[in-house]
Write a structure and sequence with these properties.
Layout (H helix, E strand, L loop, with lengths): L2 H13 L7 H8 L3 H13 L4 E4 L3 E4 L11 H17 L2 H16 L3 H8 L12 H16 L1 E8 L5 E13 L4 E7 L4 E6 L3 E10 L8 H14 L1
Helix pairs in contact: 2-3, 4-5
Protein name: YafY family protein
InterPro entries: CBASS_pafABC_assoc_protein, HTH_11, WH-like_DNA-bd_sf, WH_DNA-bd_sf, WYL_dom
Organism: Pseudoalteromonas haloplanktis (Alteromonas haloplanktis)
Length: 230
């Protein structure tokens, strides 16, 4: 790893932390010696980067506006793939933000990297997530953020329609379909609802409250426990 790249990584690590990190921990993360970390810290301090702390105690960067991040090709590929997925499979607002991010990334790429990025082996089709599902996703995301109930009709696997009032907790993409994770007031338990089977959804002006036994993380833990024991 070149020194310039190591210094960028060192600054990013220090900037991302709320508490000081020791030279030994930094050395382990960057796979260098502690002596190298001490020299790098001195170099940053002499360059005007406000690194606070000392040997044996730890280091931390105080308030500081950093220059734009430098990404490797692999990091750019990951960012662009993720942005393309958001653009294709989420709601219009998130899609617009993802496209804006892609535009900004492409605007600062050197020509050599642009060509490599254009040759990404991944394609993200959007035809399976139509405008109706986009609007549903937007409404659900807003309801999740505001912790407000939703009302809808749901078509189950047997093509039976039921009326539901639910507390939306999160949206999960399983690789083929988006699924709403919610606490169903009809069943008084967690339920999964495929977005393509949700009909006539409307927000309800009723705020719900989450707690340790009713939230998305708790649901995920229950799912993990189920599959680990099966």
């Amino acid at each position: 790893m070149h020194k310039s790249e190591r210094l960028f990584q060192l600054v990013n690590i220090l900037k991302s932390r709320r508490f000081a990190i020791t030279a030994s921990d930094l050395a382990a993360r960057l796979d260098v010696s502690e002596r190298t970390i001490y020299r790098d810290i001195q170099h940053l301090q002499s360059s005007g980067v406000p690194v606070a702390g000392e040997a044996g105690v730890g280091y931390l960067i105080t308030e500081y506006d950093l220059p734009p991040m430098m990404f490797t090709l692999e990091e750019l590929q990951a960012l662009l793939l993720g942005s393309n997925m958001v653009s294709a499979w989420t709601d219009p607002q998130l899609a617009a933000n993802a496209q804006a991010a892609i535009t900004k990334i492409n605007a600062v790429l050197p020509e050599k990297l642009k060509q490599q990025v254009d040759e990404l082996p991944y394609i993200v089709p959007s035809f399976s997530h139509d405008k109706s599902q986009q609007q549903t996703t937007l409404l659900l995301r807003q309801a999740i953020a505001n912790k407000t109930c939703i009302e809808f009709h749901y078509i189950d696997v047997n093509q039976q329609s039921t009326h539901r009032i639910a507390e939306p907790l999160g949206l999960v993409y399983w690789g083929a379909k988006w699924t709403l994770i919610a606490y169903c007031q009809l069943r008084t338990d967690y339920r999964e609802f495929r977005l393509d089977r949700i009909q006539a959804i409307t927000p309800v002006c009723k705020v719900f409250v989450t707690h340790p036994q009713k939230n998305l993380a708790h649901y995920i833990e229950l799912v993990k426990a189920k599959y680990q024991t099966s």
